[in-house]
Specification:
The complex is a heterodimer of chains A (about 700) and B (about 190). Chain A has about 700 residues and is of the alpha/beta class. Among the domains of chain A are: about 280 residues, no CATH class; about 70 residues, no CATH class. In chain A, helix 13 links the parallel strand 5 and strand 6. Chain A is globular. Chain A starts with 5 loop residues before the first helix and ends with a helix. Chain B has a single domain, classed as Beta-Lactamase. In chain B, strand 5 and strand 6 form a beta hairpin. In chain B, the strands form two sheets. A five-stranded antiparallel sheet of chain B has the order 2-1-7-6-5, with helices on both faces. Chain B has four helices and seven strands; from the N terminus they run E-E-E-E-H-H-E-E-E-H-H. Classes of the chains: A alpha/beta (about 700), B alpha+beta (about 190). At the A-B interface, helix 27 and helix 29 of A face helix 1 of B. Chain B: This is TRAPP subunit.
Chain lengths: ~700, ~190
C-alpha cells in the first residue's frame, strides 16, 4: 500500500484501507494552513467551458480545477491512480516519457524552426519537475508543515459577489448541519459496525472543523483570508481565442468595481494578481507557437504573466483515465451538493500531471513572489512609518492614538448601510499585511502586525475581535514548540477571552440596534470559529496535560453558547471525549501507550484463544486476568482521564441514538466497551449503557426486515 | 436538592448506592430526573479520575478543584490550604479525607471523601430544580455539613468492616446500614 497522505486522512471515508493508520497530533495546524491558503479565482469564457464539457464532461474550467486545490506538491489526484494500480505506475511513467519523446521527435521532424520552442517548453517542464522532486514529499509527514504550499480555488469574483449574502456570515449552522447529516448517511452506507472507527471519527471531526473555519465563497469584511489573491483568466487557443479576448476579459476584471452593483468597499482588484491561462493542444505546433507569442504580447502590452496548459490532449482507448476525488476543502454549498450525488469525474493521467506542473509554476513563480512583493511593499509604506513614529514609546502613542480617534471618517458606508474600512484604508492594509504574512507562514511578522493593529482598532469592536483572535492564533501556530503554561496563561488565553468578549459586545450592539436575535448570528459564527480553532490548536501542542483543560473549556463554551445543530453538537461532545483521552501526564505517556498496546494484544490473543478452544481451561483465564490487573494502572492512577473520556463518549452515544445515527452509536459503544467491561455498571438493566445496547440490537434486528 | 451517594471499591465498582430526595412542605418528592438516574453512576465513575489525581497530590495546584464555599473560616478549610489526601508536612490537620467539591457536570456538583483504606465515598449533588443535563445553576455545598455526613458514614462503614460476615469489597446489602445512611442524609444534607 502507498503512504498515508494528508488527503487520505481528510477523505478517509473514501480510503477505508487506511483506517488503521495513525495521524500526527499537529494535523490541525496543517488544516488551518490549508484553510487560510491563498484563494485563486478561475474565470473562463463560455466557449472554453463548453469545449471542456464536451471533451471531459465537466461543467466548466472552475469545476475542473477545483479538484486540484490542496497541497500542490502532494499531487493527490495522481495518487488516486498510483494507489489503485501501484505496479502499473512504473509502466505508465515510462509510457509517458516515450510519449513526450515521440512528441518532441515529431516536432523536430515537422518544423525545424520549432525546435527552440519545443526545447524551451520542455526545459520549463523539466525545471518544474526538478523543483517538484525537491519539494515533493508527503505533506502529512513533513516535520515543518509550513513548507507545504496549499491553495484553494473558487468561482470568478463577479459570481461570488453576485451570490454574496449581505450579512457577513462566516458559515451558517444550518448548512453545516445538512452537510453533516449527508456525510453521516454516506458513512452509514460505506461502513459496518466492525469498521475500525478511531481514525475515521477523527477524520470526520476534522472535516467538520475545516468547514467551520474556512470558506471560499464568503468574503468577510473584517479579515482577508478568503479574499482572492490570484485571478486566473483562461483562454481557449484551440478555439481561436486571441489577444483581444484576453484583453477584454482583463478589462472586465479590472472594472468589476464599476460594473458590479454594490461592489464591496473592502475588495481591491489591484491587490489581485491576474494571470492568463492558455489552454492549447500539445500536438499542434501552431498552437504552441501561438501560446508563446500571446504570452509575450500579454506581458509586453498588459504586463500580465501567462501560464500554458496542454489541456486538449488527444485521447484514445488506451489513455489512462483517473477517477478524481473531491477536494479536501471547498465551499460548504459545493460540499453539500457533492454529498448528495455520485461524482464520477475522470481525467487522463497525463492531463493531471500537466495541471500539477502548471500549478507548481503558478504557485512558486507567480503567486508567492507576488505575495512577498506586496507584503514588503505594505511593510514599507504602511507599517514602517508607524513604527518609526512610535519608537516604542508610550507617551508618543498617546498623541498618535488621539489623532486616529479623530479620523472616524475612515469607515465607508456601503449600499446596505454597513460601515466598513475601505480597501485602501491603513487599517485594512495592515490587516491584509498581517493575514498575508500568516498565509505565507511568517508568524512572527503576522503577530507583530496584529499586535500593533489591535491598538488602532479599539473603537471598532468588530474589527478588533478578529484581530485579537488571530493574534492569539499566530502565537499558537508560530511558537508551537515553546508554548509554556505561563505563555498560555499570560498571553494566549487573555487574548482569546478578550476576542470573545469583543465578539459578544458587538453582537449585543447589533441586537440593540436591530432588535432581532438573527442579526447577531454573523458574530456567533465568528465566535464559534474562534473557539473551535483555539481548542484544536491547544490540542495540537505537545504537552497535552496542560493544554487540554483550555480546549475543553472552549468546547464547553461552544456547547452552551452557540446554537449549533444537533449533529454538530454531538461532534463537539465526542471531541470533548477525545480531549479527555488526550489528557495524559507527560511522565506516563509512554507507559500508557505501552499499556494500551499490551491490552490490545491480550484482547487479540484472548479472541484467538476463544476461537481455538471454546472450553479453554481456567488456568489460562487466570493468567490473562492477572496480566490485565498488573501494576501498570497503578502508575497511571490520577494521571489520565480515561474514565472521563469514556463517560463523554457514552453521552455522545446517547445523543447519537436520539438522532437515530445507529452506526455512530455502535462505534461509540465499541469505544467504551473496554473501560466498562469489568464493571457491574455495564450489565445493569436500569442504566444508560445497557439500554443503549438494547436499543442498538433492536435496531439491528429491525434493519433486515425493513431492507 | 436530591443527592446520589455511592461507596466505590478499589476496582471502581460501587459497593453501596443510595439516592436521597427531598421531602418538601407539600410532601412532593423532588428526585433526579429519569435521564439523570440512568446516568448518575457513570458521572460518578468519571469523576474517579479526578479523585485519583487529588489523592496523590501533596498540594493540589489546580484551583478548579478548590471549594468556593466561603461561609466561615477556621475549621471550614479549602483543600488548597491543607494539601490533599497525602498530607503536606507543613500541615498538621489530620482531617483531610474530605476532598470537597472535586468535579462538576452541568449544574451537578460532585464531592468526595477517601477512607484510609482507599474506599471512595462520592456524592452527586443535584440542583433543587433537578433539571436535565443542561441546567447551569451550580449547587452550593455546605462543606461543614457535608464533611460531618461523610465522617459519620466512614464510621458506619468501619463498623460494617468489623462484621465477620462481611468481606471487604463486597456490596453492602444490610438494611440497617441503609437506613442509618438515609437518616444521616436527612440530618446533614436535606435540612
Amino acid at each position: 500500500m502507498n503512504t498515508f497522505t494528508y488527503e487520505h486522512y481528510m477523505n478517509l471515508l473514501f480510503h477505508l484501507d487506511y483506517c488503521k493508520e495513525n495521524v500526527i497530533p499537529e494535523i490541525s495546524r496543517r488544516i488551518l494552513l490549508h484553510a487560510i491558503s491563498p484563494v485563486i479565482t478561475v474565470t473562463s469564457t463560455p466557449d472554453l467551458d463548453q469545449h471542456i464539457s464536451e471533451v471531459y464532461n465537466v461543467d466548466s474550467l472552475y469545476m475542473m480545477l477545483r479538484y486540484f486545490g490542496g497541497c500542490v506538491s502532494d499531487r493527490d489526484q495522481v495518487n488516486e491512480h498510483t494507489n489503485s494500480t501501484a505496479t502499473k505506475h512504473v509502466e505508465t511513467i515510462s509510457d509517458q516519457n516515450t510519449v513526450v519523446n515521440t512528441n518532441m521527435s515529431d516536432l523536430e521532424k515537422v518544423e525545424p524552426s520549432n525546435i527552440s520552442n519545443a526545447t524551451s517548453h520542455l526545459a520549463v517542464s523539466s525545471n518544474t519537475r526538478q523543483r517538484r522532486n525537491r519539494s515533493r514529499s508527503n505533506s502529512l509527514f513533513q516535520r515543518d508543515p509550513t513548507q507545504s504550499q496549499y491553495i484553494r480555488f473558487t468561482k470568478p469574483l463577479a459570481d461570488i459577489l453576485n451570490t454574496r449574502d449581505t450579512n457577513d456570515m462566516l458559515f451558517d449552522y444550518h448548512s453545516l448541519e445538512i452537510f453533516l447529516e449527508n456525510y453521516l448517511k454516506m458513512i452509514e452506507k460505506q461502513t459496518t459496525d466492525k469498521t475500525p472507527d478511531r481514525l475515521l471519527k477523527k477524520s470526520l471531526y476534522h472535516t467538520f472543523f475545516s468547514l467551520a473555519i474556512s470558506s471560499t465563497t464568503s468574503l468577510s469584511p473584517y479579515e482577508s483570508f478568503n479574499h482572492p489573491i490570484v485571478s486566473l483568466i483562461a483562454l481557449d487557443i484551440s478555439k481561436g481565442q486571441t489577444y483581444e479576448h484576453g484583453r477584454d476579459l482583463l478589462i472586465n476584471f479590472k472594472n468589476l468595481h464599476r460594473t458590479v452593483e454594490n461592489f464591496p468597499v473592502f475588495i481591491n482588484t489591484n491587490d489581485i494578481l491576474p494571470v492568463f491561462l492558455l489552454c492549447f493542444d500539445p500536438t499542434s505546433p501552431e498552437q504552441i507557437e501561438q501560446c508563446e507569442a500571446l504570452s509575450k504580447q500579454f506581458k509586453k502590452q498588459l504586463f500580465v504573466e501567462t501560464v500554458s496548459l496542454p489541456l486538449w490532449i488527444p485521447q484514445n482507448e488506451s489513455t489512462i483515465q483517473v477517477k478524481l476525488h473531491q477536494p479536501v476543502m471547498s465551499s460548504l454549498d459545493e460540499m453539500i451538493y457533492f454529498t448528495q450525488q455520485e461524482d464520477n469525474t475522470e481525467l487522463p493521467l497525463k492531463l493531471l500531471d500537466s495541471i500539477y506542473d502548471i500549478l507548481d509554476e503558478l504557485v512558486h513563480d507567480l503567486l508567492l513572489p507576488f505575495m512577498h512583493r506586496k507584503i514588503s511593499f505594505w511593510e514599507e509604506s504602511v507599517m514602517q512609518p508607524r513604527r518609526s513614529l512610535f519608537h516604542g514609546s508610550k507617551w508618543m502613542k498617546k498623541f498618535i492614538s488621539k489623532n486616529t480617534h479623530q479620523q472616524n471618517n475612515t469607515l465607508v458606508k456601503d449600499a446596505n448601510g454597513n460601515m466598513y474600512f475601505a480597501s485602501s484604508s491603513t487599517e485594512f492594509l495592515l490587516r491584509k499585511l498581517a493575514d498575508w504574512s500568516m498565509m505565507t507562514s511568517s508568524f512572527k511578522n503576522a503577530y507583530n502586525t496584529y499586535e500593533s493593529l489591535s491598538h488602532e482598532l479599539e473603537n471598532y469592536p468588530k474589527y478588533m475581535a478578529t484581530c485579537l483572535e488571530w493574534e492569539a492564533i499566530t502565537l499558537l501556530m508560530g511558537a508551537q514548540s515553546i508554548v509554556t503554561v505561563k505563555m498560555i496563561k499570560n498571553d494566549i488565553v487573555p487574548l482569546l477571552d478578550n476576542a470573545l468578549d469583543t465578539y459578544d459586545m458587538s453582537s449585543m450592539r447589533v441586537q440593540k440596534r436591530d432588535g432581532t436575535v438573527q442579526a447577531t448570528e454573523p458574530f456567533r459564527s465568528y465566535e464559534t470559529r474562534c473557539m473551535i480553532l483555539a481548542s484544536e490548536l491547544f490540542l495540537s501542542l505537545s504537552d497535552t496535560w496542560t493544554s487540554t483543560p483550555y480546549a475543553i473549556e472552549y468546547l464547553e463554551l461552544i456547547l452552551s453558547e452557540c446554537k449549533l445543530g444537533p449533529c454538530s453538537q454531538i461532534m463537539i461532545w465526542e471531541r470533548l471525549s477525545d480531549c479527555y483521552s488526550l489528557r495524559l501526564d507527560p511522565r506516563i505517556k509512554h507507559k500508557v501507550e505501552n499499556d494500551s498496546n499490551r491490552k490490545n494484544k491480550l484482547k487479540l490473543q484472548r479472541n484467538e484463544e476463544k476461537k481455538n478452544d471454546e472450553t479453554s481451561n481456567n488456568d489460562n483465564k487466570k493468567v490473562f486476568e492477572h496480566e490485565e490487573n498488573s501494576n501498570y494502572d497503578l502508575v497511571a492512577q490520577g494521571l489520565t482521564r480515561k474514565r472521563k473520556a469514556a463517560f463523554f463518549r457514552l453521552l455522545a452515544a446517547k445523543k447519537w441514538a436520539d438522532q437515530k445515527q445507529w452506526r455512530q452509536v455502535a462505534w461509540c459503544l465499541n469505544d467504551v466497551e473496554d473501560e466498562y467491561a469489568h464493571l457491574a455498571l455495564a450489565t445493569r438493566k436500569n442504566l444508560m449503557l445497557y439500554r443503549l445496547k438494547e436499543d442498538l440490537t433492536d435496531h439491528e434486528l429491525k434493519q433486515p426486515e425493513t431492507a | 436538592m436530591p443527592q446520589y451517594f455511592a461507596i466505590i471499591g478499589h476496582k471502581g465498582n460501587p459497593i453501596y448506592e443510595a439516592e436521597f430526595s427531598i421531602q418538601q412542605g407539600n410532601q412532593k418528592n423532588l428526585g433526579f430526573s429519569q435521564e439523570l438516574k440512568e446516568m448518575n453512576p457513570f458521572i460518578l465513575h468519571a469523576s474517579l479520575d479526578i479523585i485519583d489525581d487529588l489523592q496523590w497530590q501533596a498540594v493540589p495546584s489546580n484551583s478548579q478543584y478548590t471549594n468556593d464555599n466561603s461561609s466561615g473560616s477556621g475549621s471550614n478549610f479549602s483543600i488548597s490550604s491543607t494539601g490533599g489526601f497525602l498530607r503536606s508536612k507543613n500541615v498538621n490537620n489530620t482531617d483531610n479525607c474530605y476532598l470537597g467539591k472535586v468535579d462538576h457536570f452541568y449544574g451537578l456538583a460532585i464531592t468526595a471523601y477517601i477512607s484510609y483504606g482507599g474506599m471512595k465515598f462520592v456524592m452527586i449533588h443535584g440542583t433543587s430544580t433537578s433539571g436535565g443535563s443542561n441546567s447551569t445553576n451550580t449547587v452550593v455545598i455546605d462543606d461543614n455539613a457535608c464533611r460531618s455526613f461523610y465522617q459519620e458514614i466512614h464510621e458506619l462503614y468501619i463498623k460494617t468492616l468489623m462484621n465477620p460476615f462481611y468481606k471487604t469489597g463486597d456490596p453492602i446489602s444490610s438494611p440497617v446500614f441503609d437506613s442509618r445512611v438515609r437518616s444521616l442524609a436527612r440530618k446533614y444534607l436535606n435540612k
